[in-house]
Amino acid sequence: xxxxxxxxxxxxxxxxxxxxxxxxxxxxxxxxxxxxxxxxxxxxxxxxxxxxxxxxxxxxxxxxxxxxxxxxxxxxxxxxxxxxxxxxxxxxxxxxxxxxxxxxxxxxxxxxxxxxxxxxxxxxxxxxxxxxxxxxxxxxxxxxxx
Length: 146
Hints:
By secondary structure, the chain is α/β, with parallel strands linked by helices. It contains 4 helices and 6 strands; from the N terminus they run E-H-E-E-H-E-H-E-E-H. It is globular, with a radius of gyration of 14 Å. InterPro entries: Flavdoxin-like, Flavodoxin/NO_synth, Flavoprotein-like_sf.
């Protein structure tokens, strides 16, 4: 089993690129990871450490590839008290619901008993052409908390 399970949601692939960059950085520290793009709830351990990275689609919505996972969490209401997680959102501040997807997922995970590690990172893609850069800086602090 991986030390960290990445869960990504993306429309154009930005969240996946961020996950790949962060996984490579963790590998240098001998921290293993697995990246799951839009997994089903049944594909995940309900223990351990998750790192969710998602863009926001439309008007603050979860991207299509992560929507089934989000809906399964809401419907099945699993006990996630053995899950610790990090949260990174990608968005555009010009929209009213900036980073709405990660905010919704974050709230849902906490309501199911999961514990967020550190602060949620919200990356404005209009201010960061390469979202991997602020995510890498955030990871340096976050990994010391796991």
